[in-house]
Amino acid sequence: AASAAAPAVGPELAGDSVEALADTLARAERKALLAALQACGGNRRLAASRLGISRAGFYAKLQQHGIQR
């Protein structure tokens, strides 16, 4: 019987890598919010639906990202 080798363990993420990931995710989320708003003609309820999130969640994310539309 063949035994499966354990996956190699890579170096732990440095603090900078984690921060870079958080920044990347925040930029992607902001871009998605703005794109949904534009595609929906500024209709926040429709934009939230398009993104698959609640209206309240959408408003919270707009506030978090400083989007005033």
TrEMBL record:
Residues 24-64 form the DNA binding HTH domain. It comes from the Bacteria. Gene3D superfamilies: Homeodomain-like. It holds the Pfam family HTH_8. GO terms for molecular function: sequence-specific DNA binding. InterPro entries: Homeodomain-like_sf (IPR009057), HTH_Fis (IPR002197). This is Sigma-54 dependent transcription regulator. It comes from Thauera phenylacetica B4P.
